[in-house]
Structures are given as structure tokens and as C-alpha cells.
Amino acid sequence: MRIAIVDESAMRASIMEDGLADLPGCEIFVVSQRNGLLARIAEIEPDVVLMDLGNPSRDVLEEYFAVSRALAKPIAMFVDESDDDAIAASIDAGVSAYVVDGLAAGRIRPLVDVAIKRFNAFARLQTDLDEARGKLAERDTIDKAKRILMNTKGVTEPEAYAELRRKAMSSSRKIVHIAEAVVTAHELMGD
Questions:
Q1: Domain residue spans of the chain
Q2: Name one GO biological process term (predicted).
């Protein structure tokens, strides 16, 4: 596992490194500069990112949230003080674990595990949501094609669907592809 530790303080970064020392097969990379942070993290290609921000200003938090949004990786963010707005923004930015006043070597490994598990759970939900949206979009296209066939050919809804299905089967294509062709042709004809 490749872990990137983002911290401008060498002392705090070493606490995280100590907490990860007994993790087998782990490569640890410490990034101590904020300049070019996203490019550096992309270069490392980490599996997990740990960010210790101490007591950051709003601008610094926003900068790190922008990095979080750009990464599709589990991220654990450590801060010294709680802030409801920052917590909400971190969740929106994709941070998997927002840890307040919790920087201790013994807590790092369990927090990495939590960040990974929460990231994976969220990724599964996002995949399910994307799949459901795709199916709804397909259903809408098929319904639109049925309405077009019903209006232009004067057939019932079951007959329109049967016609789409017959054409899909005879051309070895999916019904949604036939429906898209019907909708596109209808739009081209200007009806």
C-alpha cells in the first residue's frame, strides 16, 4: 500500500510515520510543501492520503479541499480544532475521515482503515447511484420512443414496445439503442 502523508511539519509527519511503521508492505511518502501538491500526489499515486493541517486558516482548508475533490482516494484529514463548517466542507470534498485533535501514533492505523472502508462504501453507493441514473435515462429514452411510435403510427403502448423489441432482436442490439435511433430520427425530421 502506498500512503502519502501531507504535512508541513516534519514532527507531525513523523508521528504519522510511526503509527504506520508496523503496517506490512507499506510505502510511505511525505509531502511537506503545499506548492504543486496535487501534481506531487498524482506522481506518488498513493492508495491513501493522510493530511495533517494543524490549525489551518480558511484559505488553507479550501486549498486542501480542492485537492481532496480532485483525488479519488481515501483521505484522512487531521486538524487541531473542531469547526462545523469545515467538517461539512470536508465531507463535500470527499474526505473519508475528518479527525479533530486525534494525532497520535497509536490511532493512525485504525484511522487509515476507517478512511479506506468509508471511501469504499461511498464509492459503492456512487456506483449504484450512477447505475440507477443510467437505467432511468434509458427508461426515459425508451418511453420517449414509445410515445413517438404511438403518435406517428397510431399504436398502443404495448404495441410500440413490441415493435422496439422486435427491431432490437432482429438487429442484435439493445432496445435502448433502437429507442435512441427512433428519438434521433424523430428530432431530425422536425416533428
A1: 2-103, 131-189
A2: phosphorelay signal transduction system
**Cell numbers found for residue 38:** 496535487
Residues ≥6 apart with Cβ < 8 Å to 37: 6, 31, 63, 67
Lowest-pLDDT choice from 1-10, 16-25, 78-87, 138-147: 78-87
Question: Are the C-beta atoms of residues 96 and 119 closer than 8 Å to each other?
Answer: yes
Q: Which cell numbers in the block locate residue 179?
A: 429507442
Instruction: Please tell me if the domain spanning 2-103 has the same topology as the one spanning 131-189.
Output: no
| CATH class of the region 131-189 | mainly alpha
The one-letter amino acid code at 36 reads: G
Q: For domain 2-103, which CATH number applies: 3.40.50.720, 3.40.50.2300, 3.20.20.70, 3.40.50.150? A: 3.40.50.2300
